[in-house]
Amino acid sequence: MSALYCYALLGRRPRGRSIRGVSGERVQIIRGPGFVLAGGRLPAPPAVTPRALRRQDRVVRRLAGSAAAVLPFRFGVLVADEAALLARLTIAAHAVRQGLALVAAREQMTLRLAGLARAPTGRRPRPDARPAGPGTRYLRARAGPGLDAGDQRVLAALRAEVGPLLRAEIVEVPRDGGVLRASVYHLIPRGQAAAYRRRVRRAAARHPAVQVVVSGPWPPYAFAATVLP
Amino acid sequence: MAALHLRRRAHRRSPRLTRPQAASAGVRDVVEGADASLLDIVDHLLTKGVVVTGDVVLGLADVDLVYLRLAALLCAADRVLPPAPAGTRRRPHAGGDARPRRTAAVPG
User: Fold this and answer.
1) What is the mean pLDDT of residues B59-78?
2) Looking at residue B11, what is its pLDDT?
3) Inter-helix orientation angle B19-32/B36-47, to 10°
4) What number is the average pLDDT over the span A121-148?
5) What is the ipTM of this complex?
6) What is the pLDDT of residues B19-68, one digit of tens each?
7) Rounded to whole angstroms, how far apart are CA atoms A22 and A7?
8) How far is the C-alpha of B108 from the C-alpha of B106, rounded, in Å?
9) Is residue B92 included in any domain, yes or no?
């Protein structure tokens, strides 16, 4: 039997006609405790190409269109033993159900905050009285860089404007410090993307120094990443 | 890890722009251009989503009986490469798997 290529975890069985996967295979539904798993039988994961990525996004969107709660898998997740996968998911069933409840009837909008690198302020950080120990250094490295004060003001303005639609948020700041200052993922009620975009445009117009680019609606990819412990 | 080429063509830049303006236009080209949705798809599908990687060993009385392997085969480079020191460019290198695999232990 071929391995199982995983597309998404769903709250319940999707409605409507059967869905085809990235390689044209039929997407199968496998029942778990409080969730179902959507996957296709493939001998190997698809090659990483723009076409394959777009196809997988289409498959996940179709699943999202036929089920209220969808937690997409990352591209390339192929399991040889679906019983082992179900056992793993069953151990984490509570977290999966919580994740499904979070994304039910919601969709993701993605914001990219971009702009030119800011010149350093010339202010030196205050030296600590004692050098940081290995634990502190580890935690600081793990936390990564934060947003500077200007970007935090922009983000606060965006939050204030989209607040009535906002259900959850994830903010990622790239480590490299290039033109991309932050990626912000917002979970909003389904069908509210146009209203969300209008609100983002209003807030962004007040902060021309930072380029705010909005895309979506997307299946809740960023929120699915946090589901399993 | 395979390279994924996203840009189909070089974007033209007006010679009349000053340097900061040109850089700002470059930012717009990247984040608002035709490739932007593909960049989003790459970000969402390669670095986000449920991951179930791990090795599971079922054992009894300190004897491993069953070994199961779950495989998540891909992730984005910045998830496995160590952060570059300030002021340097990050360069991919062979065998750069800097993150430990998640292991789910099932008591026997």
Assistant:
1) 51
2) 42
3) 60
4) 61
5) 0.75
6) 555 555 555 554 454 455 788 888 888 888 777 655 445 555 555 555 55
7) 10
8) 6
9) yes
Number of domains observed in the structure of chain A: 2
**Same domain membership, residue A172 and residue A96:** no
A40 and A94, same structural domain?
yes
Asked if the structure places residue B72 within a domain, the reply is yes
A11 touches chain B (CB under 8 A): no
Sheet holding A106-114, edge to edge: A168-172, A180-189, A106-114, A211-218
SS3 B26: helix
C-alpha A163, offset from chain centre: 19
Give the global pTM: 0.71
**CA dihedral (A183, A170, B88, B9) positive or negative:** negative
User: What is the Cα–Cα distance from B32 to B24, expressed in whole angstroms?
Assistant: 12
Q: State which residues form the domain around B25.
A: 16-49
Are A150 and A93 found together in one domain?
no
What is the residue range of A212's domain?
Answer: 106-124+144-224
Looking at residue A82, its pLDDT comes to: 83
3 state DSSP class of A81:
coil
For residue A50, give the 3-state DSSP assignment: helix
CATH number of domain containing A207: 3.30.70.260
DSSP state of A164: G
Distance from CA of A122 to the nearest CA of B (A): 16
Residue B44 with chain A: CB contacts under 8 Å: 57, 110, 218-219, 221-222
Asked if A50 and B72 come within 8 Å (Cβ–Cβ), the reply is no
